[in-house]
Amino acid sequence: xxxxxxxxxxxxxxxxxxxxxxxxxxxxxxxxxxxxxxxxxxxxxxxxxxxxxxxxxxxxxxxxxxxxxxxxxxxxxxxxxxxxxxxxxxxxx
Length: 93
What we know:
By secondary structure, the protein is an alpha/beta fold. The chain has helices spanning 9-21, 33-38, 51-66, and strands at residues 3-5, 28-30, 44-47, 74-77, 85-86. The protein is built from 3 helices and 5 strands. It has a 3-stranded mixed beta sheet, with helices on one face. A two-stranded parallel sheet has the order 1-2. The mean pLDDT is 87.
């Protein structure tokens, strides 16, 4: 695990601490998805935010990549209907 993002930073920090305790890396903890994807050690993102926030979250990720602020290989998200979508090419509603 390289990083954890949650708008409530103390929740991100708690997950990062649990990862460290489990021997699953030394992840950064942040409240900003743009900061997460811009981190030099982050190369992929799994979006697990609530359904009503996913389009906004993925749009921010794609924008950061397109503006050169992030160098991601890919991202993955699971929409509410259970289908998986992936790819930095764009965002579909």
